[in-house]
Specification:
Oligomer: single chain
Distance between the termini: 36 Å
Strand content: under 5%
Number of domains: 1
Number of helices: 1
Length: 31
């Protein structure tokens, strides 16, 4: 596996986590 692919996967995972936390802060009644 190339380093660029690993970096891309890490970036996508980080963005997903940030989006999840951001949504949780906006709509706390859903959690």
């Amino acid at each position: 596996m190339s380093a660029s692919l690993v970096h891309l996967c890490v970036g996508i995972a980080a963005l997903g986590l940030c989006a999840y936390l951001f949504y949780a802060l906006i709509r706390p009644e859903k959690f």
